[in-house]
Structures
1.
Amino acid sequence: MRYTLRQLEYFIAAGEVGSITLASERLCISQPSISTAISHLERELGVQLFVRHHAQGLSLTPAGHKILAEAKRVVQQAEGLYAAACEVTEQVRGQISVGSMVTLAPMIMPELAHNFMKTFPETEIRQFAADQGWLLGRLRHAEIDVAITYDLQIPEGVSFSALAELPAHAVVSEAHPFAHKPFVTLAELAQEPLILLDLPLSLEYFFALFFNEGLQPKIHSRSSHQDVVRTMVANGYGYTLANVRPRSDCALDGRRIVRVPISGNHRPMVIGTATLANIKKSRLVEAFEQHCRESISSQYIPGMDAPFS
């Protein structure tokens, strides 16, 4: 066999995202390495896998679609060898695919993954950051092993294990009148311009906070990018709502933001691990879930500031 599993993984990543640039970002591998792997596979297999669109990414050819499905099966079977070896030797080794909610990944995953691989040196974690719909879809198709996400619309067939609660809070600029208040009410926030983090399910959660109290927020603008929202807030465009607690109190442009508790008893977001139900977990997956239980709690979440006292 004159191709490697690594080359197949690079091809799979490019095929799934339709871009060498995005595949490079997903795998933390240089773009030339991915391009070389794809070219090698095309020469070895004697088929064209992609149509290259100038400045517009890639699209799979009909042959590419068929080979992508087979490549996924080959990689999955190869990973199964590690799982079988782990069961026999009682070692924790091999590669695990972990998806994380896009708003959680930058804070939680670096420390969590680093400590896991330090504890189990013969393991490797493939990381994916996406919204809830993508994570649950990939989980149900067994394309990722574990998702670290919120308890929002968990479907039948997926098991969710809660780890920590994240209450909602307001985020304002340091010059905002609310910045020095011990807490703020939803009624007060409803009078202010809202810079909304526009992500599926999270959006519904934030709206429900107001609707449950008969209030209507005043939406100034929306963005699906957390850093854009934080920077707009830091520049005084309005406030936003959040559950995550980044350790940095600065936006990307260096301006400071302030977290303010919301008074009242409101449903928090719950972070947890999601896995396929009714399926025997490998020793690797069990070890990773145990690591999550030991590393994440309402008192401490990797990458996040302490909860309000």
2.
Amino acid sequence: MIEIRAIVTDIEGTTSSIDFVRDVLFPYARKRLPAFVETHGDTPEVQHWLHEAAKEAGIIEASRQEIIEMLLRWIDEDRKSTALKALQGMIWKDGYEAGDYRAHVYPEVPARLRAWRAQGLKLYVYSSGSVPAQKLFFRHSDAGDLGPLFAGYFDTQTGPKREAASYAAIAEAIDEQPAHILFLSDIVQELDAARAAGFQTGWLLRDPAQASGTPTHPAYPDFDAITV
């Protein structure tokens, strides 16, 4: 096996439960988004992402209420919109800092991340959530502050997670040969894209019922089963 020098990990279904994102974070942002946009809509950062959302939807002119309704619909659809993810991240920041919740991570993940760092591996995150939201997630985890373990974060501004070019861009950004990078995810299409870019891959199969047919990537029930 080629030496692994860096690990890039997904979040939902990989380091952390999909239920936390679906049942805690999404409803939290959905409930607060209308008031957040109304009260922060004139600040430069929020204004930028509202404009980006409108551009993504092909809207030339729309009222603030129409944009809010569109964003709420996108939340319901779990749309992988960079603009939406950025706005959600701003709302989640308030929730983390208020102590309304802590981010879930699977029990074995913190110790395994620390062990990999102790081995000299560099750790990165690649998620559809915005980079600020990713940093908040690991800083406010139910296992404490895991942020210092990561050397960098990537989101969909790098590119879609199911396109090989996105992984090539990550390899270039971290100055590492793709063959020496292990990408971990619970989504086969993401793993396919990473492998097409030359990455090694690991399929987190925490629920065996997810599997159908013969696995096309090395499959692991948890982080402890991964040998690097």
3.
Amino acid sequence: MDEEILVKEREDGIGIITLNRPQKKNALNISMRRKISEYLNRWKNSDHIGVVIITGAGNAFSSGFDLSEFQDPSIFNEIYESSAKYHRDVWHFPKPIIAGINGLAFGGGFDLAALCDLRVSSKDAAFSHPEVKFGAPPIYTPLRWIVGEGIAKDLCFTGRKMDAEKAYDIGFVNYLVEKEQVLGKSVEVAKRILESPRDTLRFTKSFMIKQTEESFEKAFSIEHDQAFKEVLFKHLKK
């Protein structure tokens, strides 16, 4: 349903995607992942949209994947395929993406924040990988590149919660603001980015992606693709 994703194309060249299931803490389901992929693929060659902001409605950025879908084995393949495509579409998007983290970012929400280029967070946000407790291996590599191996291993193995102040201190969060300022600050940062020529931004982002592309694909094919097929689905079938 389109209502699960709110999309705005601003006149100043900023595209905003709002995860809009506040009653479910913006849990990502198949249709939402497909819509995110659809808009990112539409915008990647757009002459108008130069920066994208992804944020959440209500009091959460995203609690992760919608676990209710995992109760239906008949859609496991759709879950896997939509997830594999969506993660790669975010990572390989050729323009800057800002995560406007307006609340908790757990599981797949934590992953989404890590896949973005910059992170603006509310002071009451929190980050965690609780999915490891029910058999879903966290995506480790993008997080490791941001915060280092020691902290990334700790967060991925323990599933412990990290508050926004700690996330800022270790460099995961770039800007820390009050909750009501998250979107405004994200737009401010986006406007600052757009002061540079679009081709310069695109070249810079492409260079960043190329530096990690092979490593990302090798790691993601194990941490996501193989993990889904060999570990996660096995635990769900028990």
4.
Amino acid sequence: MTRVSIVIPARHASSRFPGKPLQPLRGAGGKAKPLIRRSWEAAMQVRGATEVVVATDDARIAEAARGFGARVAMTPADCRNGTERCAAALGQLAAPDIVVNLQGDAPLTPPWFVEALIAAMLRSGAEAATPVLRCDAAAHRSFLEDRMAGRVGGTTAVFDRAMNALYFSKEVIPWTGRSFAPDERIPVFHHVGCYAYTPEALRRYAAWPEGELERCEGLEQLRFLENGARMLCVEVESRGRVFWELNNPADVERVERALAQAGIE
């Protein structure tokens, strides 16, 4: 049986949103739960996971996580991103074959996104993989509006015909020069903030220095590409669910609205 550990990396010292994992978010019934709990509850819905662990260096986040029943792995404060934190947590996991990084700011991640990612890893033999979601007209427009307003919104991905990642960016790529009608097929893919890796791929990642593109974009996955490592993009379907990460304080209302729309209490 394949052992799958879902790790939720969480840090308090976010430059754009300090204390983000503890930000209360109201769901469909009006009840507020901290972001880290909502991300953990999303992870707990994934079929086939052996364990779900919150990885943090912050005592406040650890206390909150243990308070709602989560397992916690304490990791060093100098982890620069979630992938490094997952690598630092390896020794505290249950000997996984696959490690899934479900980022702590992505409580809207549907379980079938993660399940598709795990299945693709097993089917392809890839060492690292990540989901992508084709934008509809409304999502593409929101991306463009965020950039025009100077906000860092979601991340976009481009890949080759074999679905191997070519680049990820916080800009809207590919550049289309226009908006789209609701019934048009849009060549822009939203990168979903979730990754799967083999333990060996994680160890190699932690040994590589931070890359220049990674540093410029603030995107951890670019370290794989800068070192010539393959990252498989796995296209997933929204099935009517709205997907957004919580990147900035301004996103709280947007995420709460999506939680209510999805009927998540």
